[in-house]
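Collaborator request, handled under Task 6.
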Amino acid sequence: MTAFLNTIINGDCLKVLPQLPARSVNFVLTDPPYGISYQARDGRTVPNDDNTDWLEPAFAEIYRVLERHSYAVSFYGWAKADLFLAAYRAAGFRVIGHLAFPKRYTSRSGYLRGQHECAHLLAKGYPHKPEYVIGDVLDWTYSGNKLHPTQKPLSVLLPLVETFSKPGGLVCDPFSGSGSSLVAARSLGRSYIGIELDEKYHAIASKRLAEERRP
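Structure tokens returned to the collaborator:
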């Protein structure tokens, strides 16, 4: 376990998560693939986004590694919301909240212009309510997606880590991407474990964490 602390592992979360002890993680904050074969305007893609075979086993492992009476936040895509909800519930989670992140720009256009992101707040057991309850609508600041095609801004991740994890607790992100959730955890004094399947994004996240660790 100590070998994984405060690092990001290049690997498949379905192989790495089983190596973590049960009930060893305080909070999971993650942005998994949405199962929609997403492709950014510049051609970049998200690994494993062409299927959802990983969805139920991944959330079963996420549930196992979480402490009793703890939280998880998972971003998701509306087009596969039914599959995400089924996976959470099959794992044992209760869906206790929904978060919306309105954007000041259009990220995609189809029958509607896409101008928001969304996430589910999940509970394992019955965690205590936060001391300070945040709103379920949080303003979105454009990250530029320079490091990852679906890079989330720190401005929305920081309040999630601060609200739903304990000071000094261990935050895990099984789909780390460019490592934004890990940067948020570390900046708030939390330990972290990240897992990223793609070698390129793992290298980007590792470099980012190393550079931000310097004085």
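The cover message to the collaborator said: "Residues 7-213 form a domain with the Rossmann fold fold (CATH 3.40.50.150). The chain has one domain: 7-213. Please let us know whether this matches your experimental observations."
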